[in-house]
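I hope you will forgive my troubling you with a question about protein structure. You will find the record immediately after this paragraph.
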Amino acid sequence: MNSTELQKVFEEHNLWITSMHESGSRANLIDEDLSGANLRVSNLRGANLRGANLSGANLSGADLRVSNLRGANLRGANLRGANLSGADLTGAILPDNTFVIMGEAYYIQITNGEYVKAGCQNHTADQWRKFTKREIAEMDQRKALRFYPRLLDLIDFYLGKGERPEWVS
């Protein structure tokens, strides 16, 4: 698929999203070679990328919620700030040290072993380890305060043990 065809697919997909599926069409990029593509901040919510080669693609800030990435190759892709919430990643090849953690109070995504997204907050692991009690409370009040020790446990498990603020028991 050339860049003109790809642009048309994205335009139709954006129309599909903004019209609440009444016009346009869902992006169907099954088995497409999108390696190295610049898809930064693209809205690919609900797109079908099953088996697509996205190796080395720039997907930073992309909205990939509820998209089908089953069997996709994301090795070396930049997923910083991308939203993979609800995406089907079955059999997908993710970048090194990239994890999507389900079943927690918040959606958790660790990208490239550096960035940790919890709910709508995206910070480096080091930043998460240094937040004050007030900063955490401002994120989501008591719910965030209760979850914060668990988040640090997850960061420790996936990225290695690190420092914790003194206020965390």
Summary: The longest helix spans residues 133-159. Strands lie at 99-101, 108-111, 115-118, 121-124.
